[in-house]
Amino acid sequence: MPMYPGVYARISTEFRWIRESACTMTEAEQPDFCDITVSPTVSPAPTEHSTPSPTIATSSPTALNCGDDDVVMVELIFSSDYNYWETFWVLFSNSFLANGYVYYDSWWKQCIPIDETYTFTIYDSGGDGMCCSNGMGSYRIVVDGKQIKSGGSFTFAEQTVFDTTISTPFICKDSTQPFLVNEKEKNCEWVGKETASRCNKGDGKVSTHCPKTCGTCDAGCRNSAAYFKVDNLNKFKTCKWVGATSTNMRCGMIGEDNGRSTCPTLCGGC
After folding, report:
1. Pairing mode, if any, of strands 117-124 and 97-101?
2. Can you tell me the distance from the alpha carbon of 15 to that of 179, in angstroms, rounded to the nearest whole number?
């Protein structure tokens, strides 16, 4: 790979189009290479008469150790249409770039960094996708053993944005934050002194804020429905406020656990 990443294509005349498409179509944060002007390095391109390989020819960064805790396995599985030479793909994040060609039944898999947002784009220079005018082609994206996308019917390009945040088993916890009961500041320790009556206060909102104390863990991972204290503001807000905008920043304002016990579905507590 060159010093700066570039999008590799079958032929040099397609490079600018692929790069512009990857940088303008994505809904995620643009990677660094979108701001860099480079000359493409062109990998040998398959032709209509070439002999296909059983695996995908790719350009990708040095493989990471799949035994590390900060990586996750990603698999791209392809079955091309009859015009396999028209189809190629790009996968990138702000720190990662890989690309390759689709040869009949082929695949690419590698461990990539977690906690990043990735953009996968599959291109077809013929404008008829992988299915179904010239065969029943398809592709699948599998992350950590779970399929997150499958497709094949598109025109010139189709894009999927996904992240690699690894979910952890849900552990039922009471919220760390004080909350309002009849306009008075209370906490889950107060609830625990008389659960029979206090868990039902606020039309059941108390039980969503203190699920462990109130014995409502069977309801699964859910946000508190109460008005709770936001430390940095010294005001009482709801999880709806957290999710309205700037969610990551607002989660960071809620207690030492950054909101994970209070608004778990928004702040990474599920």
Report:
1. unpaired
2. 56
- Nearest one of 50, 45, 117, 51 to 88, comparing CA atoms: 45
In the chain, the DSSP E strands lie at 58-59, 71-79, 87-92, 97-101, 105-113, 117-124, 131-132, 135-136, 138-143, 146-151, 157-163, 179-181, 184-186, 228-230, 235-237
How confident is the model over 218-253, as pLDDT tens digits?
998 999 999 999 988 999 999 999 999 888 889 989
Please name the residue that has the structure tokens 């690419």.
108
Say how many residues make up the chain.
270
Domain boundaries, the chain: 12-163, 179-267
Tell me the residue type at 17.
Answer: W
Indicate the pTM of the whole model.
0.47
Q: CA end-to-end span of the chain, whole Å?
A: 38
Q: Are 138 and 132 in contact (CB under 8 A)?
A: no
pLDDT digits (tens, 9 = 90+) for 31-67: 555 554 433 333 344 444 443 433 343 444 555 677 7
The three-state secondary structure class of 236 is: strand
- Name the residue with tokens 């979108």: 34
Beta strands across the sheet bearing 235-237: 184-186, 179-181, 228-230, 235-237
